[in-house]
């Protein structure tokens, strides 16, 4: 009896480990898909949204693979490319602010700090919006709600910033490592949104 119970516990432990490792591997694969879908530069919001949907299906034990990811990507791209364009514009503004600081513009340091902080908040809101995206959803309303959650849930936002820091460190260590780690950032955003819904 004791031996059978120990064997059952061991099998459950192995099953739990196998399931978690499979989810981790799926996150890394999703990161590669996101990186490839983001190559046109303005498509990254749609790529993150499709990645979040894919991981959501995986967590719900639903069937889905590259074909479903591609279908979600095409659907999210309808309004997502404008969000991507706006993101690059915001990055350009912050870059100009940082250049102004280096040129010695009076008050430039404060403006640059505010700009960098706002850019980080915008990235977090964008990831939270992508994690909530569903086919047919309006990016404008998704971003408005995600912006509120970014402020109202600082702990969740900080977790996403931590995920972004891991991507930056991975890219600094070895650029190819940053690609699969993008999936872990999306997984963090999905988990943060689930946590916020259950609060």
From TrEMBL:
Keywords: Membrane, Transmembrane, Transmembrane helix
Record-annotated membrane-spanning stretches: 32-55, 76-96, 108-130, 151-173
Protein name: DUF624 domain-containing protein
């Amino acid at each position: 009896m004791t031996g059978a119970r120990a064997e059952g516990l061991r099998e459950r432990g192995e099953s739990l480990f196998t399931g978690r490792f499979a989810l981790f591997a799926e996150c890394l694969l999703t990161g590669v898909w996101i990186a490839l879908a983001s190559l046109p530069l303005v498509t990254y919001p749609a790529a993150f949204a499709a990645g979040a949907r894919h991981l959501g299906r995986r967590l719900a034990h639903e069937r889905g693979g590259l074909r479903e990811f591609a279908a979600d990507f095409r659907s999210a791209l309808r309004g997502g490319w404008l969000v991507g364009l706006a993101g690059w514009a915001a990055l350009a503004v912050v870059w100009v602010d940082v250049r102004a600081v280096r040129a010695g513009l009076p008050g430039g340091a404060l403006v640059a700090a505010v700009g960098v902080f706002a850019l980080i908040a915008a990235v977090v809101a964008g990831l939270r919006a992508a994690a909530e995206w569903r086919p047919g959803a309006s990016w404008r309303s998704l971003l408005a709600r995600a912006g509120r959650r970014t402020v109202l849930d600082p702990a969740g936002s900080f977790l996403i910033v931590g995920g972004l820091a891991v991507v930056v460190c991975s890219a600094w260590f070895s650029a190819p490592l940053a690609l699969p780690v993008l999936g872990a950032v999306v997984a963090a955003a999905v988990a943060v949104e689930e946590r916020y819904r259950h609060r």
